[in-house]
Design a protein that fits this description.
- With about 240 residues, the chain is α/β, with parallel strands linked by helices.
- The chain contains eight helices and ten strands.
- The mean pLDDT is about 90.
- The protein binds adenosine-5'-triphosphate.
- Adenosine-5'-triphosphate binds near residues 39, 42 and 44.
- InterPro entries: AAA+_ATPase, ABC_transporter-like_ATP-bd, ABC_transporter-like_CS, ABC_transpr_LolD-like, P-loop_NTPase.
């Protein structure tokens, strides 16, 4: 097995605040991994370390072959090109069609041939099961459909890893489930998928390896371990 993400003894800071201490984590190529944990526990910070939005100051790390400690500035875009990043709030450009959104990214990343651009856009829209959406404007799509387009956009440059930060955060359970089916299918085709989420019902439905951010660290969650969503228990209590 080959690690595609590796941290060893990493300390993760937001400014001067230590968020996660002594993190050691290995993600193998082709794995499907959940990062779980309460609000503010450091899930996003961990993902940001992978795409060097947060610098790795203490410890060692390697992502898609790039060493994170002391990574050269000019290498950061090269590393990021191997990652497809998906956030909770669908950030499509609202002034242009789905096709134009995708074309914009391809052109910005050096694609020039119209034919190749057209073919690639058709391919990624098929992968996310939205083959006829090219001419639609973002506001003509539901939240779940927009999120599929965001995933299509993340796939454009054939990244090795999909990193998703609360991708279902704004979606209802049924739409979330269909989005997870898309991510699972992408994983089945060989891409590594890492999802930060506290959508525990969804995790139960689509079981996979889990690591938890808690008490300022990251730990492996046992397969049989019951994950208890204290936040929603509290919500139930209050409602
Ligand atoms: N830009 C920042 N500057 C300083 N502190 C920050 C910054 N961003 C996040 N933090 C702090 O870092 C801690 C971890 O935040 P992070 O966003 O990684 O958590 P999270 O588990 O992803 O939470 P959520 O589920 O709300 O997204 C929090 O205490 C937060 O207040």
């Amino acid at each position: 097995m080959e690690a595609i993400i590796e941290l060893k003894g990493a300390d993760i800071y937001q400014r001067e605040n230590l968020i996660l201490k002594d993190v050691s984590l290995q993600v193998e190529k082709g794995e499907f991994l959940y990062i779980i944990g309460k609000v503010g526990s450091g899930k996003s910070s961990l993902l940001k370390t992978f795409y060097v939005e947060l610098p790795l100051i203490e410890g060692e790390g390697e992502v898609v072959g790039y060493k994170l400690q002391a990574i050269k500035r000019k290498h950061i875009p090269l590393l990021r090109r191997k990652l497809g990043i998906v956030f909770q709030d669908f950030q499509l450009l609202i002034d242009r069609s789905v096709y134009k959104n995708l074309e914009f990214v391809l052109k910005a990343t050096g694609w020039k041939q119209e034919r190749a651009i057209k073919d690639r856009i058709r391919e990624v829209l098929e992968i996310v099961d939205m083959p006829h959406s090219g001419s639609k404007m973002p506001h003509q799509l539901s939240g779940g459909e927009q999120q599929r387009i965001v995933i299509a956009r993340a796939l454009l440059n054939n990244p090795e890893i999909i990193l998703a930060d609360e991708p279902t955060g704004n979606l209802d359970p049924e739409t979330s489930e269909s989005l997870l089916n898309v991510l699972k299918a992408i994983n089945k085709e060989g891409k590594t998928v890492v999802i930060a989420t506290h959508d525990y019902p969804l995790i139960r439905k689509f079981p996979a390896r889990k690591v938890a951010c808690e008490d300022g660290g990251v730990r492996e969650v046992g397969e049989e371990e019951e994950i208890i969503d204290f936040e929603s228990l509290l919500d139930d209590e209050l409602s």
